[in-house]
Amino acid sequence: MKFKPLLDRWKKDPVPVRTAKEYLIRLDLDDAARLHALAELFPGQPLEVMITDLLSAGLDEIAAAMPYERGPKVISRDDQGDPLYEDIGLTPRFVELTRQFKKKLQASA
């Protein structure tokens, strides 16, 4: 999720489904001040929703920033017949771990 659509969603959309597990965090003073400033700008959004949305946007950004690392194995061919190699970087492992943890979290809900 990009930040611009996030701001638009805070203006109008309902709260998405959340996990049963809660996460306790302590914020950096500057981050807490900016969070409260956002809450003042968007009074219809609870702080919890804003924190989870910002975390989601940040996780999307970090996943997108993980570089592709070409592996030795050809996994398919493109339209021109050129080989497409497996990604041996962080992305496949991140995707697999995300899938595993999502399954565990859903089972505990």
Q: Care to describe what's here?
A:
The structure is a single chain. The chain is elongated. The relative contact order is 0.12. The chain has 2 domains: 65 residues, no CATH class; 41 residues. A hairpin with a 5-residue loop joins strand 1 and strand 2. The chain has a two-stranded antiparallel sheet. The mean pLDDT is 88. The two termini are 24 Å apart. 56% of the residues lie in helices and 12% in strands. It has 4 helices and 2 strands. With 109 residues, it is mainly alpha-helical.
Q: What sequence of helices (H) and strands (E) makes up the elements?
A: HHHEEH
**What structural class is derived from the secondary structure elements?**
mainly alpha
Radius of gyration: 19 Å
Let me know the average pLDDT. Answer: 88
Give the strand content: 5-15%
Number of strands: 2
Given the C-alpha coordinates, what overall shape results?
Answer: elongated
Task: Determine the number of helices (DSSP H or I, runs of at least 4 residues).
Answer: 4
Order of strands in the sheet with most strands:
1-2
Question: What does the main sheet amount to?
Answer: 2 strands, antiparallel
Helical fraction equals: 55-70%
How many domain units? 2
- Low-pLDDT stretches are none
Distance between the termini: 24 Å
